[in-house]
Structure formats: C-alpha cells, structure tokens
Amino acid sequence: MDKKTVTTISYLSRLRIDKEKEEKIVQDLDNIIEFVDQLNDADTSDVEPLTNPLEKTAKTRSDQITAKNLKKELLEIAPSSNDDYFLVPRVVE
Description:
Layout: H1 3-12, H2 22-37, H3 71-77
C-alpha cells in the first residue's frame, strides 16, 4: 500500500483525505490487509463449503418461562411505587 494507491482509492470513493492524515491511513490500510491476509493460514480442510450462509440454522430452544415473577417483591422494597410501577421524581418540566 502506498500513497498513490490511497489517493486513487479516495478519488474512486469520492473521499477527500487530508495530506497530514495520509500517512496514517496508509499504515492503517496496511494493518488491515495484513490482518485479513491471516485468513489464508486458517485450516479449513474439514469445513464443507456453503452455497448460502443461511444453510446453517440457529439452535433453538423451547419458549418456557424460567424466571419467577418478582414484581410484587421489588415494588414493595422500592422507595416509592404504586400498584404497577416505580415512581420517580419528574426530570423534565
């Protein structure tokens, strides 16, 4: 990655890059390319190719209530409440 490439990319993407930030952008893009290049070293020999990322389905579980309803207990220990809600001081007039 060099300044000419960054200038070309910025022109094609219609971005204006400050000259004083150009060197940092070159270094950042170099770091990104190095990071992505590490994917070439990943062992994918046991991974079957997908034709669509949606082939993998998410694990699901049954929709069951597992927590107790603590509404009454929490409202009782609140500094101020009514039958259903915590009461707090008005913030906006």
